[in-house]
């Protein structure tokens, strides 16, 4: 299959989201919004939150499964199963799936830290597994997703997976151990930017701006800065220098950030998130070996 035929192939497939939280919703909203598949091809299930499933069904027109029998049918009939529970629930979910899955189904995991090897251990056999690390910006088609494959994923399944995640943003295929680094940079990354925005808005308000003005100016500044890096192709450091007049306001601000070890803080945050992904994976692996 070539990439151009993939959306058509996807359009005839049944997708099942096992776990119906923020990340599952972000991907579903992106897939439907980008017209990659019809809502009726998408099934979603969770552990027990019927209200959440009703909300998703009303909002997107997706099919939901509440009873155990309906869940089993949805899983059995799916061509692609997205694993989207929290890491702490992953071992239980995979144990439930172990006797329900068939060899021709494609598994797509978004679970932080969970390795392909551990998924196969918990399922009791090798399968076609796509391990990914997306982010919530997939909701608006601006996601950034790292992807790795188990050995048995075919070229056709790779093209399909990449088309799904490209529909909701950009993708990069990496060696599996690097997915933890992707988690530190772009999986958790939106939260760092939101955190910075929270502080910029709060500071603006503290110094006299209205909340609306502080918010609008901050949002446009972040948007403009990201777009400048993307469209000019210039390095962030060069663009930063162009804002920073000698002895001016920006220099004073950057010196203040340096005094608070801004770069070190960000570097350590990314490294710690990557390390935490490894810890989450090791916890699940321990459950697998029990
Ligand atoms: N939120 C984010 O920005 C990102 C999250 N991820 C990964 O996505 C996964 C989900 O994260 P969120 O959507 O944020 O979590 P969430 O808590 O919003 O959603 C988890 C979902 O899994 C369901 N679930 C848990 N145990 C279950 C079971 N036994 N059977 C059926 N459903 C079950 C819950 O009911 C809930 O719908 C995590 O593994 C996380 O590492 C990956 C990239 C980004
Ligand atoms: O915080 C977490 O563990 C998940 C994985 C990446 C973003 N959110």
UniProtKB/TrEMBL annotation:
User: Which Pfam family, any one, appears in the UniProt record?
Assistant: P5CR_dimer
- Origin, by domain of life? Bacteria
Protease found in the keyword field: no
Which pathway or pathways does this protein act in? Answer: Amino-acid biosynthesis; L-proline biosynthesis; L-proline from L-glutamate 5-semialdehyde: step 1/1
State the compartments where it is located. Answer: Cytoplasm
Q: Which reaction does this chain catalyze? A: L-proline + NADP(+) = (S)-1-pyrroline-5-carboxylate + NADPH + 2 H(+); L-proline + NAD(+) = (S)-1-pyrroline-5-carboxylate + NADH + 2 H(+)
Read off the SUPFAM superfamilies from this record. Answer: 6-phosphogluconate dehydrogenase C-terminal domain-like (SSF48179), NAD(P)-binding Rossmann-fold domains (SSF51735)
Which processes are annotated in GO (biological process)?
Answer: L-proline biosynthetic process
One GO cellular component assignment for this chain's record is:
cytoplasm
Q: Where does the Pyrroline-5-carboxylate reductase catalytic N-terminal domain lie? A: 15-113
Q: Which UniProt keywords apply?
A: Amino-acid biosynthesis, Cytoplasm, NADP, Oxidoreductase, Proline biosynthesis
The record's InterPro entries line, in alphabetical order, gives:
6-PGluconate_DH-like_C_sf, NAD(P)-bd_dom_sf, P5C_Rdtase_cat_N, P5CR-like_CS, P5CR_dimer, Pyrroline-COOH_reductase
Give the EC number(s) listed in the UniProt record.
1.5.1.2
Pyrroline-5-carboxylate reductase dimerisation domain: which residues?
176-280
Q: Name one GO molecular function term.
A: pyrroline-5-carboxylate reductase activity
Q: Where are the transmembrane segments?
A: none
Chain sites annotated for binding NADP(+): 84-87
Q: What function is annotated for this protein?
A: Catalyzes the reduction of 1-pyrroline-5-carboxylate (PCA) to L-proline.
Family, per entry:
Belongs to the pyrroline-5-carboxylate reductase family.
What is the designated name of this protein?
A: Pyrroline-5-carboxylate reductase
The organism encoding this protein is Paenibacillus cellulosilyticus
What phylogenetic lineage does the species belong to? Bacteria, Bacillati, Bacillota, Bacilli, Bacillales
């Amino acid at each position: 299959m070539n990439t151009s035929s993939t959306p058509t192939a996807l359009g005839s497939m049944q997708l099942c989201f096992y776990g119906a939280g923020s990340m599952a919703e972000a991907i579903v909203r992106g897939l439907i919004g980008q017209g990659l598949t019809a809502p009726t091809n998408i099934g979603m299930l969770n552990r027990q939150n019927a209200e959440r499933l009703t909300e998703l069904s009303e909002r997107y027109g997706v099919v939901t499964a509440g009873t155990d029998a309906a869940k089993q049918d949805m899983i059995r009939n799916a061509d692609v199963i997205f694993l989207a529970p929290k890491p702490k629930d992953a071992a239980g979910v995979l144990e439930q799936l172990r006797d329900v899955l068939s060899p021709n189904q494609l598994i797509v995991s978004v679970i932080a830290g969970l390795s392909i090897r551990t998924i196969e251990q918990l399922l009791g056999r090798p399968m076609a597994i796509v391990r990914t690390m997306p982010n919530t910006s997939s909701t608006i088609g601006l996601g950034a997703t790292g992807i790795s494959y188990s050995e048995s994923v075919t070229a056709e399944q790779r093209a399909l997976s990449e088309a799904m995640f490209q529909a909701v943003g950009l993708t990069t295929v990496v060696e599996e151990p690097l997915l933890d680094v992707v988690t530190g940079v772009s999986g958790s990354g939106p939260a760092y930017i939101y955190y910075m925005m929270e502080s910029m808005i709060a500071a603006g308000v503290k110094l006299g701006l209205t909340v609306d003005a502080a918010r609008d100016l901050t949002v446009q500044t972040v948007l403009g800065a990201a777009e400048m890096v993307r469209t000019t192709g210039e390095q962030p450091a060069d663009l930063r220098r162009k804002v920073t007049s000698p002895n001016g306001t920006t220099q004073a601000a950057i010196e203040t950030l340096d005094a608070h070890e801004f770069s070190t803080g960000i570097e350590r945050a990314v490294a710690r998130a990557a390390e935490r992904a490894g810890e989450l994976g090791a916890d699940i692996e321990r459950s697998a070996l029990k």
